[in-house]
Amino acid sequence: MSILNAFDLSTEGILLPQHLAPKIEGFPEVAILTFNESTVKAAVEAHGGDRIGEFNAGSVFPIYRLNYNGKHVAVARTLIGGAGSAALLEEIISKGARKIIFFGSCGALDAALLRGHLIIPTSAYRDEGTSYHYAPPEDDYIEIATANRLSEIFSELEIPHVCGRTWTTDALYRETRGNTEKRRAEGCITVEQECASVVAVGKFRGVEVYQFLYAADSLAGEEWDRRGVAIELRADRDRCMEIALEVALKIQ
Questions:
Q1: How far is CA 95 from CA 20, 53, 55, in A?
Q2: Out of 51-65, 68-82, 85-99, 228-242, which region has the weakest mean confidence (pLDDT)?
Q3: Number of structural domains found in the chain
Q4: What's the chain's average pLDDT?
Q5: Among 19, 54, 75, 180, which is most buried by a count of CB atoms within 10 Å?
Q6: What sign results for the dihedral spanned by CA atoms 105, 125, 61, 249?
Q7: pLDDT value of residue 232
Q8: Which residues pair with 228 in a beta bridge?
Q9: DSSP string of 100-153?
Q10: What's 122's domain CATH number?
C-alpha cells in the first residue's frame, strides 16, 4: 500500500498520546520546543524554572515551566526528524499545551540567506512520511496557518526575517542536486526535517503550531557549505530561545 493511502479518519489510533502522557493540571498553554539540550538548560538557568514532566516516546527528556515576565511557558527539548518531533508534539498536546513554538536550524537554498538569518516558513513540501498519517495527500505542500501572525509578531519586535516555502525531508543524505533544484524552482528557500510533520499534527489535533528557522549550512552553491563553527551556532540558538520566549508572550 502506498504512503498516499495512509491517512485514516475512519478509525482511531490504538496507542494514544494520553496512554503515555496524561494531562497535567496547570500545564502552560504555550510550550517552546527546540532540538538542542544545552539551549533548554541555558534558558532554565537564565530565567529559572521547575521540572513539571517529561517526554516518554523513545527518549526521556524533562519538561520545564518557566515564569517569563509573569507568564508561564513550558520549555523542552524535542527529537530531530519528523517522526520523533511529531510524537513528542503529540505528548505535549496531551499534557495540556495548546500553542507550540518550534525553532531549529535549516539548510539555506537561497544564497542570500547567510548563517543566522531567520526564516518563517509559509508552507512545507511533504517529502517525509509522518504528515501523510495526519493530513490527506491531495497537496504536496502543507500550508502553515500561523505564518502570517508570527511574521507580524517578528515585525512588532523589530526582528529581521524572511518568509518563504520550506522543503521537509527525512532523507538527509539524499538531498540531491536534482531535487534541490526542483524545490528551489517551486519557491523553497530552506530545507529541514520536521516542519511538514509538526504542522500536520497541529492541524489534526486542533492546536496552533508556530515555527521559525535559523540558517545554518548552505546548499545554494555548487558544493555543500558547512558555514560557521559550534560556538557561533550556539549563540544563534540562544538568541532564538529569547525570541521564542517573547513570541510566547504575544500569543498568550
A1: 10, 9, 10
A2: 228-242
A3: 1
A4: 94
A5: 75
A6: positive
A7: 62
A8: none
A9: EEEEEEEEESSTT--TT-EEEEEEEEEESSGGGGTS-TT-SEEE-TTHHHHHHH
A10: 3.40.50.1580
